[in-house]
Amino acid sequence: MEIINKIKRIKKPKAPWMQYYDVDGIDIDDDTIYEQMAKSAVKYANFPALEYFGKKTSFKLLLKKIDEFGKSLKSYGIKSKDVVTVCSPNTPEAVYAFYAINKLGAIANMIHPLSAEEEIKAYLINNHTKLLIAADICLEKIDHIISDTNVEKVVVISPKDSMPLFLNMGYSLTAGRKIKKIKNDNYIYLKDFINHGKNETIETISGNKDTPAVILHSGGTTGVPKGIVLSNGNFDALYKQSIITFDKIIPGEDSILTIMPLFHGFGLGVCTHTPLCLGAKVMLVPQFSPKTFDKLLSKTKPSTVIGVPTLFEALLTSNNVPNLDLSQIKYIISGGDSLSLPKIDKINAYLKKHKCPIVLGQGYGMTEALAATAYTPGPGNKKGSVGIPFLGNYFKIVDPDTHKEIGPNEDGEICISGPTVMLGYLDNEIETNEVLRMHNDGRVWLHTGDIGCMDEDGVIFYKSRLKRMIVSSGYNVYPSYIENIITQHPAVLSCTVIGIPHPYKVEVPKAFIILKNDYLGINVKRSIKSFCEKHLSKHSVPYEFEFRKSLPRTLIGKIDYKKLVEEEKTKRKD
């Protein structure tokens, strides 16, 4: 792994937001991710740690399950620094696997179960995955590509594994019936996997705060998929920051609704690891339906809800529970993209109507900094802002061309420095050095590719993206990457992709395509869509395809995607 070198001689940046804090900073320990959580698990042994379809798992049982997974991983030869990939929705088994991998000193590579076949193959090859833990819903795709990788074993888990008996049976008779069981020596199912390690012993492999621990995936600022290498210290820093930021959380009493997925920094760091370290209950939601979000809130009664804007916008159209009572909520936070001021007002009006004692908070972050770097607490919650930096983080606004810091209330590129910033992109020194840059103050700054400003009090305001990007249901979608895939289809001469409005997802990609002369007809559209489904993750597959004889161009001959955006706006108004 090529990781940027960090110079220790650094100057302390300006930090006007420190007026909002009563302490000066945080101390990052050399504990591993597992050790961070296990300390709380021992302390809160009899409190509920996880809840899944109403079935609870105590912290004591959580540690036992992690050890079962760890012993079985060890029995299949997993050791320190090996990469184990987890491809699963939010299930207890995915949580057990994540912590067991870390306990062994191995590296957890977390990937989206809806990733396309070719994406899964690339993820497995690029990080030298030795063993894959995958949900059964992914098996058909995995079986198509697994022989092209160096994966030695595929451990099959299922969303039904930890369901209560009645729901387990229901799943087996409905969704489970469609899943074909694969029988060969490369695949091992959960029960046999756990039995295989029963006679093993397991010890916690120590590391330090700079030890690589997790790989997450993002297009970064360029759109080309990259592995983001995060350390034990990144996770410890987020936890320590959260002790101060989420000071109303009471162990054994509070709970968080974990809708955000475990393969996402938001879901893994903010909605799972941090609450477990705080002694809160994590309520895992493997599949989210916006139409029944209010029913989910009514049934689970979480004290903390964290999600992307589309999640909260869904509340405005949810009418299943007229007398929904949200009076138990202590924190309700939106991140992953910005909300317009009118939409914030509508959401807050909804919350007030349903007895929520607080207004919606907004946060800011990116996977390269473990998803959460700023938040709008109390006095830092200025209208339209994304708040102040978490304690220990530093923000500054720079001129995108010169990287020179600019003054208050001036728009520029948002840069972040702090203990949650990634180690670097996996085996990609060029891209790492493109976004992690040493400034004259001797500090490494993460260049976010986002435009914003900071006021005199240190409050951050996000404005726009520096480069083309679509945010669909909270996921970053990169038009240039989709275009590169589509133009590889033999029928396509050229292509451009823009974002178009969607009632729930906010935006979805639309592809404008010029075909080669020899290709015409509806079968070509089906072929191109199938090609996209094979090579792109689900949220990146274009929602619409439009075929044209030509595309608008700028004066220098480039495709004028901005004109296409304006055309779509006009068309949809009409």
Structural account:
- The protein is α/β, with parallel strands linked by helices and 574 residues long.
- It folds into 3 domains: 258 residues, 3-Layer(aba) Sandwich (Rossmann fold); 160 residues, 3-Layer(aba) Sandwich (Rossmann fold); 104 residues, 2-Layer Sandwich (GMP Synthetase, Chain A, domain 3), CATH 3.30.300.
- The protein is built from 16 helices and 27 strands.
- It has a 9-stranded mixed β-sheet, sandwiched between helices. Strands 7-6-5-3-4-8-9-19 form an 8-stranded mixed β-sheet, with helices on both faces.
- β6, α6 and β7 form a beta-alpha-beta unit.
- The termini are far apart.
- The N terminus is likely disordered.
The largest pleated sheet is described as: 9 strands, mixed
- In round numbers, the mean pLDDT is 90
Strand residue content: 15-25%
What is the straight-line distance between the termini? 52 Å
The gyration radius over C-alpha positions equals 23 Å
- What would you call the structural class? alpha/beta
At the first level of CATH, the class of the largest domain is Alpha Beta
